[in-house]
């Protein structure tokens, strides 16, 4: 599946992968790594300070990265993959 062209929101697809973001969030979400990867620094710092919401927030966030079709990076571009 090629991701050239534009995403449903009209912007080009992100150079970041939703699979990478999801796996980083599931395994290293307590450190906010998945959110740092996508450029959401504020959210990443909040996850870092709360240990990923004691693991629950980071796990749910990681699953949503993997299953959602509209997760975006910092610029609002839909994640590829």
TrEMBL record:
InterPro entries: TM2, TM2D1-3-like. It is found in: Membrane. One of its GO terms (cellular component) is membrane. Residues 15-63 form the TM2 domain. It comes from the Bacteria. The chain crosses the membrane at residues 21-38, 44-67. This is TM2 domain-containing protein. It comes from Streptomyces radiopugnans.
């Amino acid at each position: 599946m090629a991701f050239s062209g534009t995403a449903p929101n009209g912007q080009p697809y992100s150079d970041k992968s939703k699979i990478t973001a999801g796996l980083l969030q599931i395994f290293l979400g307590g450190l906010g790594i998945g959110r740092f990867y996508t450029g959401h620094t504020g959210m990443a710092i909040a996850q870092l300070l709360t240990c990923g919401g004691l693991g629950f927030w980071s796990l749910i966030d990681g699953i949503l990265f993997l299953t959602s079709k509209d997760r975006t990076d910092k610029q609002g571009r839909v994640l590829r993959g």
